[in-house]
Amino acid sequence: MSQQHQQHRQEWNAVDDYFTDLLAQPDDALTAALRDSEAADLPHINVTPNQGKLLQLLALTQGARRILEIGTLGGYSTIWLARALPADGRLITLEYKPEHAEVARGNLARAGLDKLTEIRVGPALELLAALGAEHAENPAPFDFVFIDADKANNPHYVEWALKLTRPGSLIVLDNVVRGGAVTDPDDTDPGVRGTRAALDLMARHPKLSATAVQTVGTKGYDGFALARVRD
Ligand code: SAH
Ligand code: DHB
Ligand code: MG
Questions:
Q1: Is the pLDDT of residue 213 over 70?
Q2: Residue 47 pLDDT
Q3: What are the Cα distances from residue 121, in Å, to 57, 94, 156?
Protein backbone atom coordinates (compact mmCIF):
# COMPACT_ATOMS: atom_id res chain seq x y z
CA MET A 1 0.00 0.00 0.00
CA SER A 2 1.33 3.43 -0.88
CA GLN A 3 2.25 5.90 1.83
CA GLN A 4 -0.49 8.21 0.58
CA HIS A 5 -3.04 5.43 0.82
CA GLN A 6 -1.92 4.64 4.38
CA GLN A 7 -2.33 8.29 5.26
CA HIS A 8 -5.86 8.33 3.83
CA ARG A 9 -6.76 5.23 5.80
CA GLN A 10 -5.49 6.84 9.00
CA GLU A 11 -7.68 9.85 8.27
CA TRP A 12 -10.73 7.68 7.56
CA ASN A 13 -10.19 5.83 10.84
CA ALA A 14 -9.75 9.05 12.82
CA VAL A 15 -12.92 10.55 11.36
CA ASP A 16 -14.86 7.31 11.93
CA ASP A 17 -13.67 7.24 15.57
CA TYR A 18 -14.71 10.88 15.98
CA PHE A 19 -18.19 10.30 14.48
CA THR A 20 -18.66 7.09 16.47
CA ASP A 21 -17.62 8.65 19.81
CA LEU A 22 -19.87 11.60 19.18
CA LEU A 23 -22.95 9.99 17.64
CA ALA A 24 -22.97 6.20 17.80
CA GLN A 25 -21.29 5.06 21.01
CA PRO A 26 -21.83 1.34 21.53
CA ASP A 27 -23.21 0.53 24.99
CA ASP A 28 -22.14 -2.41 27.19
CA ALA A 29 -24.27 -4.98 25.34
CA LEU A 30 -22.84 -4.01 21.95
CA THR A 31 -19.28 -3.92 23.29
CA ALA A 32 -19.74 -7.32 24.93
CA ALA A 33 -21.21 -8.70 21.69
CA LEU A 34 -18.01 -7.84 19.82
CA ARG A 35 -15.86 -9.16 22.67
CA ASP A 36 -17.65 -12.53 22.60
CA SER A 37 -17.57 -12.61 18.78
CA GLU A 38 -13.81 -12.07 18.95
CA ALA A 39 -13.41 -14.75 21.64
CA ALA A 40 -15.27 -17.22 19.40
CA ASP A 41 -12.99 -16.33 16.45
CA LEU A 42 -15.77 -14.90 14.31
CA PRO A 43 -14.51 -12.84 11.35
CA HIS A 44 -14.37 -9.04 11.85
CA ILE A 45 -16.95 -8.24 9.19
CA ASN A 46 -19.74 -6.83 11.36
CA VAL A 47 -21.05 -3.35 10.57
CA THR A 48 -19.26 -0.48 12.32
CA PRO A 49 -21.11 1.34 15.13
CA ASN A 50 -21.94 4.33 12.92
CA GLN A 51 -23.21 1.98 10.18
CA GLY A 52 -25.26 0.10 12.78
CA LYS A 53 -26.73 3.40 13.94
CA LEU A 54 -27.58 4.24 10.32
CA LEU A 55 -29.48 0.93 9.99
CA GLN A 56 -31.27 1.69 13.27
CA LEU A 57 -32.26 5.20 12.16
CA LEU A 58 -33.48 3.89 8.81
CA ALA A 59 -35.59 1.22 10.53
CA LEU A 60 -36.97 3.81 12.97
CA THR A 61 -37.75 6.26 10.17
CA GLN A 62 -39.45 3.40 8.40
CA GLY A 63 -41.55 2.71 11.51
CA ALA A 64 -40.49 -0.89 11.02
CA ARG A 65 -42.42 -3.46 13.06
CA ARG A 66 -41.03 -6.46 11.22
CA ILE A 67 -37.40 -6.71 10.16
CA LEU A 68 -35.65 -9.44 8.18
CA GLU A 69 -31.86 -9.81 8.28
CA ILE A 70 -29.95 -12.20 6.02
CA GLY A 71 -26.51 -12.92 7.58
CA THR A 72 -26.42 -12.75 11.39
CA LEU A 73 -22.75 -13.46 12.28
CA GLY A 74 -22.55 -12.62 16.03
CA GLY A 75 -25.71 -10.52 15.99
CA TYR A 76 -23.99 -7.12 16.12
CA SER A 77 -26.04 -5.51 13.34
CA THR A 78 -29.03 -7.45 14.71
CA ILE A 79 -28.78 -5.60 18.04
CA TRP A 80 -28.67 -2.18 16.35
CA LEU A 81 -31.67 -3.09 14.18
CA ALA A 82 -33.79 -4.81 16.86
CA ARG A 83 -33.47 -1.72 19.07
CA ALA A 84 -35.48 0.15 16.45
CA LEU A 85 -38.48 -2.14 17.01
CA PRO A 86 -41.54 -1.34 19.10
CA ALA A 87 -42.34 -3.66 22.05
CA ASP A 88 -44.54 -5.86 19.85
CA GLY A 89 -42.10 -5.84 16.90
CA ARG A 90 -40.20 -8.81 15.51
CA LEU A 91 -36.85 -9.39 13.83
CA ILE A 92 -35.99 -12.64 12.06
CA THR A 93 -32.31 -13.16 11.21
CA LEU A 94 -30.94 -15.97 9.02
CA GLU A 95 -27.54 -17.60 9.58
CA TYR A 96 -25.89 -20.57 7.89
CA LYS A 97 -23.30 -21.42 10.56
CA PRO A 98 -24.61 -22.87 13.85
CA GLU A 99 -21.49 -21.65 15.67
CA HIS A 100 -22.22 -18.06 14.57
CA ALA A 101 -25.87 -18.41 15.57
CA GLU A 102 -24.79 -19.67 18.99
CA VAL A 103 -22.68 -16.58 19.63
CA ALA A 104 -25.48 -14.35 18.33
CA ARG A 105 -28.00 -16.06 20.63
CA GLY A 106 -25.90 -15.16 23.70
CA ASN A 107 -25.33 -11.62 22.47
CA LEU A 108 -29.03 -11.00 21.81
CA ALA A 109 -30.04 -12.45 25.19
CA ARG A 110 -27.53 -10.23 27.02
CA ALA A 111 -28.91 -7.24 25.12
CA GLY A 112 -32.40 -8.16 26.35
CA LEU A 113 -33.58 -8.75 22.79
CA ASP A 114 -34.22 -12.50 22.83
CA LYS A 115 -38.01 -12.01 22.96
CA LEU A 116 -38.06 -9.68 19.95
CA THR A 117 -35.66 -11.66 17.79
CA GLU A 118 -35.55 -15.10 16.22
CA ILE A 119 -32.42 -16.67 14.71
CA ARG A 120 -33.08 -19.29 12.04
CA VAL A 121 -30.16 -21.53 11.16
CA GLY A 122 -29.49 -22.94 7.69
CA PRO A 123 -28.83 -21.87 4.11
CA ALA A 124 -30.69 -18.58 3.69
CA LEU A 125 -32.28 -19.63 0.41
CA GLU A 126 -33.97 -22.58 2.15
CA LEU A 127 -35.01 -20.48 5.13
CA LEU A 128 -36.43 -17.82 2.80
CA ALA A 129 -38.46 -20.44 0.93
CA ALA A 130 -39.85 -21.59 4.30
CA LEU A 131 -40.66 -17.98 5.27
CA GLY A 132 -42.37 -17.52 1.92
CA ALA A 133 -44.47 -20.64 2.53
CA GLU A 134 -45.38 -19.51 6.06
CA HIS A 135 -46.53 -16.18 4.72
CA ALA A 136 -48.32 -17.44 1.62
CA GLU A 137 -51.60 -16.05 2.98
CA ASN A 138 -50.08 -12.71 3.98
CA PRO A 139 -47.20 -12.28 1.55
CA ALA A 140 -45.82 -8.92 2.76
CA PRO A 141 -44.64 -9.33 6.33
CA PHE A 142 -41.43 -7.25 6.41
CA ASP A 143 -41.01 -3.47 6.52
CA PHE A 144 -37.22 -3.57 6.37
CA VAL A 145 -34.72 -6.11 4.97
CA PHE A 146 -30.96 -6.04 5.57
CA ILE A 147 -29.06 -8.30 3.14
CA ASP A 148 -25.56 -9.11 4.42
CA ALA A 149 -24.66 -12.76 3.77
CA ASP A 150 -22.88 -14.60 0.91
CA LYS A 151 -22.62 -12.05 -1.86
CA ALA A 152 -22.97 -14.62 -4.68
CA ASN A 153 -26.62 -15.09 -3.74
CA ASN A 154 -27.40 -11.36 -3.59
CA PRO A 155 -29.77 -11.39 -6.60
CA HIS A 156 -31.75 -14.24 -5.05
CA TYR A 157 -31.90 -12.39 -1.74
CA VAL A 158 -33.24 -9.28 -3.48
CA GLU A 159 -35.87 -11.44 -5.25
CA TRP A 160 -36.93 -12.93 -1.91
CA ALA A 161 -36.93 -9.51 -0.27
CA LEU A 162 -39.36 -8.38 -2.97
CA LYS A 163 -41.65 -11.33 -2.25
CA LEU A 164 -41.57 -10.70 1.49
CA THR A 165 -42.15 -6.94 1.57
CA ARG A 166 -44.90 -4.39 0.84
CA PRO A 167 -45.05 -1.06 -0.97
CA GLY A 168 -42.97 1.36 1.11
CA SER A 169 -40.64 -1.30 2.54
CA LEU A 170 -36.90 -0.65 2.51
CA ILE A 171 -34.17 -3.07 1.37
CA VAL A 172 -30.52 -2.43 2.32
CA LEU A 173 -27.78 -4.38 0.56
CA ASP A 174 -24.33 -4.31 2.21
CA ASN A 175 -20.87 -4.41 0.68
CA VAL A 176 -21.60 -3.40 -2.89
CA VAL A 177 -18.18 -1.97 -3.84
CA ARG A 178 -16.06 -5.16 -3.84
CA GLY A 179 -12.83 -3.11 -3.74
CA GLY A 180 -13.97 -1.28 -6.89
CA ALA A 181 -14.44 -4.50 -8.88
CA VAL A 182 -18.20 -3.92 -9.00
CA THR A 183 -17.71 -1.81 -12.15
CA ASP A 184 -16.15 -4.72 -14.10
CA PRO A 185 -18.71 -6.71 -16.11
CA ASP A 186 -16.07 -9.37 -16.88
CA ASP A 187 -15.02 -10.03 -13.29
CA THR A 188 -15.48 -13.72 -12.50
CA ASP A 189 -15.58 -13.45 -8.69
CA PRO A 190 -18.95 -14.85 -7.56
CA GLY A 191 -19.37 -12.01 -5.03
CA VAL A 192 -18.79 -9.38 -7.71
CA ARG A 193 -21.12 -11.14 -10.16
CA GLY A 194 -23.80 -11.59 -7.49
CA THR A 195 -23.57 -7.98 -6.40
CA ARG A 196 -23.75 -6.70 -9.99
CA ALA A 197 -26.77 -8.93 -10.65
CA ALA A 198 -28.48 -7.64 -7.50
CA LEU A 199 -27.80 -4.01 -8.49
CA ASP A 200 -29.09 -4.69 -12.04
CA LEU A 201 -32.26 -6.09 -10.52
CA MET A 202 -32.65 -3.04 -8.28
CA ALA A 203 -32.10 -0.80 -11.30
CA ARG A 204 -34.57 -2.42 -13.66
CA HIS A 205 -37.25 -3.86 -11.40
CA PRO A 206 -40.46 -1.86 -11.83
CA LYS A 207 -41.30 -2.30 -8.13
CA LEU A 208 -38.01 -0.82 -6.89
CA SER A 209 -36.46 2.63 -6.66
CA ALA A 210 -32.79 2.35 -5.68
CA THR A 211 -29.47 4.06 -5.17
CA ALA A 212 -25.98 3.07 -4.00
CA VAL A 213 -23.43 4.99 -1.94
CA GLN A 214 -19.68 4.45 -1.44
CA THR A 215 -18.30 4.60 2.10
CA VAL A 216 -14.87 4.86 3.76
CA GLY A 217 -13.98 4.30 7.39
CA THR A 218 -12.63 1.71 9.79
CA LYS A 219 -13.87 -1.07 7.48
CA GLY A 220 -11.93 0.45 4.59
CA TYR A 221 -13.52 1.27 1.24
CA ASP A 222 -17.01 -0.13 0.75
CA GLY A 223 -20.61 0.89 0.20
CA PHE A 224 -24.25 -0.06 0.37
CA ALA A 225 -27.32 0.02 -1.83
CA LEU A 226 -30.75 1.13 -0.71
CA ALA A 227 -33.99 0.22 -2.46
CA ARG A 228 -37.56 1.25 -1.67
CA VAL A 229 -40.46 -0.87 -2.78
CA ARG A 230 -42.64 1.47 -4.80
CA ASP A 231 -46.13 2.44 -3.65
N1 SAH B 1 -24.79 -8.72 9.58
C2 SAH B 1 -23.61 -9.05 10.38
C3 SAH B 1 -22.49 -9.56 9.51
C4 SAH B 1 -22.84 -10.74 8.67
S5 SAH B 1 -21.39 -11.51 7.98
C6 SAH B 1 -23.15 -7.80 11.11
O7 SAH B 1 -22.98 -6.75 10.44
O8 SAH B 1 -22.94 -7.86 12.32
C9 SAH B 1 -22.15 -12.66 6.91
C10 SAH B 1 -22.81 -13.85 7.60
O11 SAH B 1 -23.56 -14.53 6.60
C12 SAH B 1 -21.82 -14.86 8.18
O13 SAH B 1 -22.12 -15.15 9.51
C14 SAH B 1 -22.02 -16.10 7.31
O15 SAH B 1 -21.87 -17.33 8.01
C16 SAH B 1 -23.46 -15.91 6.85
N17 SAH B 1 -23.77 -16.66 5.62
C18 SAH B 1 -22.94 -16.92 4.57
N19 SAH B 1 -23.58 -17.64 3.65
C20 SAH B 1 -24.84 -17.83 4.09
C21 SAH B 1 -25.98 -18.51 3.59
N22 SAH B 1 -25.97 -19.12 2.42
N23 SAH B 1 -27.12 -18.49 4.33
C24 SAH B 1 -27.16 -17.84 5.51
N25 SAH B 1 -26.10 -17.20 6.05
C26 SAH B 1 -24.97 -17.18 5.34
C1 DHB C 1 -17.31 -9.41 4.13
C2 DHB C 1 -18.67 -9.58 4.38
C3 DHB C 1 -19.40 -8.54 4.90
O4 DHB C 1 -20.72 -8.66 5.15
C5 DHB C 1 -18.81 -7.33 5.19
O6 DHB C 1 -19.57 -6.32 5.68
C7 DHB C 1 -17.46 -7.16 4.95
C8 DHB C 1 -16.71 -8.20 4.41
C9 DHB C 1 -16.52 -10.52 3.58
O10 DHB C 1 -17.09 -11.61 3.36
O11 DHB C 1 -15.33 -10.34 3.39
MG1 MG D 1 -21.61 -6.71 5.46
A1: yes
A2: 98
A3: 27, 6, 18
Question: Please, what is the end-to-end C-alpha distance for the chain in angstroms?
Answer: 46
- Which-ligand-closest: CA of 69? 1
CA distance 226 to 193: 18
Of ligand 1's listed atoms, the one at least distance from the Cα of 149 is: 11
- Domain coverage including residue 180: 3-229
What separation in angstroms does the CA of 129 have from each of 141, 144, 227? 14, 18, 21
> CB within 5 A of ion ligand 3: which residues?
148, 174-175
CA 216 to chain centre: 17
Does residue 116 have a pLDDT over 90? yes
- Band of the pLDDT at 136, cuts 50, 70, 90? confident
| DSSP code per residue over 148-211 | -S-GGGHHHHHHHHHHTEEEEEEEEEE---GGGGGG-TT---HHHHHHHHHHHHHHH-TTEEEE
- Signed CA dihedral, 114, 120, 125, 128: sign only: negative
Q: What is the pLDDT of residue 139?
A: 61
pLDDT of residue 138: 72
Supply the CATH number for residue 76's domain: 3.40.50.150
Structurally, how many domains does the chain consist of? 1
Q: Read off the amino acid at residue 149.
A: A
The Cα 133–Cα 178 span in angstroms is 33
Pocket lining: 100 vs ligand 1, CB cutoff 6 Å:
yes
